[in-house]
Amino acid sequence: MATPKRITRLVTPIAPRLLGAPVEYEARYFEQYSNALRLYFNGVDTTFSGLLGSPKTNTTLRPGGSYLNFPYAAVQRTTDKTFAANTATLITFDETDFLNDCRNDTTNGLYVNNAGIYNYQFSVQWRNTDSQDHDSWVWLRKNGSDIDGTGSQFTVPSKHGSVDGHLIVAANFFVQMNADDYVEMWAAVDNIAVSMEQYPAQTTPFPRPAIPSAVATLSFVSSIPA
């Protein structure tokens, strides 16, 4: 049994330019005609197998979707972020983990090169050094304007004895964006005792990785519906 061709990427099939039929039957013409169609439909089969999955070969089912390529970004902030009380503040990201057809200039938001519906997700590590609980807010802006419905309010717990209060918060929102649009994370606190804090990697009392003060991901969901 022949070994099935391994798919490594999706290729868009291009319809062949078929020759006009001769006036009289000619075997060579029909052979060329059949070969052109055979190559085209083989390409169609290969592309749809990579997209939707191919039939079982013996006991192996090849899943589809492995070669799809969508825009995305994953960034993090590796430094603390302090605030003035009751002041809207832009959160920037100094480290890029993953980036595909998006941009992070580290001083503004995340830019997209392609129009579409995107899923923006964030996670923030809040710290409170005060003996009272305090509130914090996080929301999104697109192209400098607040996005309605993206606000979140969180109460950061107070300090417990000598241990600062901590709270990890997260949310995600769909955002419609055009090419070259950008989306930003903004935040505010009601007391300067509240900040976003990063923690370096530790070895004691057990080894653990660094904790960023904030992370964000942007994932392409769909083209903009007509």
Outline the fold blueprint.
Elements: H1 27-52, E1 53-57, E2 60-63, E3 72-77, E4 89-91, E5 95-100, E6 102-104, E7 110-112, E8 116-128, E9 134-142, E10 145-146, E11 152-156, E12 165-177, E13 182-189, E14 194-196, E15 214-222
Antiparallel strand pairs: 1-2, 3-5, 3-15, 4-13, 6-7, 7-13, 8-12, 8-14, 8-15, 9-10, 9-11, 9-13
Briefly note the structural class of the backbone: mainly beta
Low-confidence stretches: none
Work out the radius of gyration: 27 Å
Report the strand count.
Answer: 15
* Average residue pLDDT: 88
What percent strand?
A: 35-45%
- Termini separation (Å)? 47 Å
Number of helices: 1
Topology pattern, helix = H, strand = E: HEEEEEEEEEEEEEEE
| Helix content percent band | 10-25%
Give a structural overview:
The protein has 226 residues and is mainly beta. 20% of the residues are buried. It is elongated. The model has no long low-confidence stretch (mean pLDDT 88). The protein contains 1 helix and 15 strands; from the N terminus they run αβββββββββββββββ. The two termini are 47 Å apart. A hairpin with a 2-residue loop joins strand 9 and strand 10.
Please summarize what this structure is.
This protein is mainly β. It contains 1 helix and 15 strands, in the order αβββββββββββββββ.
Features:
single chain, 226 residues, mainly beta, seven-stranded antiparallel β-sheet, six-stranded antiparallel β-sheet, 1 helix, 15 strands, elongated
